[in-house]
Amino acid sequence: MNRFSIIIFILMIAGSCTNSPPAGQLLPADDGALAAIFPPQASLSDDYLEIIARVRLDLPKYRIKGICAIFRSPDGSVQIDFVHTSLFGSYREDATIYVAGDSIAIQDHERGVFRGNTETLEHLSAHFDFEIMPDDVIVLMLLGTPRREDLENARLAVSGGRWTLLAQWRGRQLEIEGDDGRGPSRLRICSIDGKGCYEARYGYESTGGFGGYPERIICERMGGSERLSMTVESIGRSGESSAARR
Question: What is the C-alpha separation between 102 and 15, in angstroms, rounded?
């Protein structure tokens, strides 16, 4: 029996012995409970994780597509390389995003501009109209989990082979849904007043060809026209990072 099944079993027993509200049972206080409902790639190891994917980015004025290379180091830091070209070849983006701990930065190779943590967070917060945290990127890409200590009133509800996790995460509402025995199918983060939200949806190969990691990821701002669609082409681990080429 895997870790997630054990947690579900315990919650089902607890639910049968108490008149708990439909919101579900309180999530155990250790990080292992969160790791159990995320894909294996969200747990740190001694290896570097490398993901290559095709990407399509829909923006209000144009649409671009290209290649995305994602590198996750054993310390949990993430580097994302984007090389995008518009469908008609008239627009190009070449940038790298660095996320480490509570810091995020963007290197715009196309324009020769580097944006540090403060500038990047101000830009993202203004765009999404609520506070963005650096590790939101890591969690949305399912390359790491929220720290249990940062979640308030975290509850896991199970019904009909599906589970839902609800919590407050750093002053925002977090909702994650998934199927029993599989990672999240949807992850949404909203401001407390519900006026600003962004969401990621995940699709998995029926054969489990990526070792539990989703084959398709779609991220979008709710109520907006911006959408990032990613299709994974390969995923693997190695003892040395390829990211050093940048």
Answer: 37
